[in-house]
Amino acid sequence: MSFTLRPWSPDDLPSLIQSANNPAIAGFMNDQFPHPYTEETGRNFIQMASQANPVHIFAIEVDGRAVGGIGIHPGSNIERKNAEMGYWLAEHFWGRGIITEAVKQLVAYGFQTFDINRIFARPFGTNLASQRVLEKAGFVLEARFEKTFFKNGEYLDELVYAVRRSA
Which helix (H) or strand (E) holds 86? Predict the structure, then answer.
């Protein structure tokens, strides 16, 4: 399925709310991604994502609508050569290979744009689909920390997947 990564726009607010307001998505995200996903939350997110230069948080557009998001967040201080990646997609589009390809595109963009040598993602141990996405995109499991995340009243394993810049 065809998609485009592009900067977020205020015009994306209705499709952002429609796509993001899903407990099945929020259940695999950190608590900054709330459920319900309100208009105020969406407006604040778009404003924050639009301010970065260079852009590092993108909308995933399918058929002219923002149906997901993906971002790369470079570290600072002693972690400055690393960047964390996060992503989500409207449930209707799951299982179509969109996120795997979006991750590959963002990895290429990240290494081209930022002075980093490693990109990592931290899916929950229960998020098997995200683990498969990362593996298909060339990420390697570096670590598993037992019961370090606390989400919806339960402790979850934290996995660390990473890909490194080619020499």
Answer: strand 82-89
CA dist 56 and 74 (Å) reads 9
State the pTM of this model: 0.94
Residue 113, Cα to own-chain centre: how many angstroms? 17
What would the pLDDT profile of 33-51 be if each residue is shown by its tens digit? 999 999 999 999 999 999 9
- Note if the bond before 74 is cis, omega within 30 degrees: no
Coil vs helix vs strand at 37: coil
Nearest to 166 by CA among 116, 130, 122: 116
Domain 4-121, CATH class in plain words: alpha beta
* 3-state SS, residue 137: coil
Question: Would you say 83 and 116 are in contact if contact means Cβ atoms under 8 Å apart?
Answer: yes
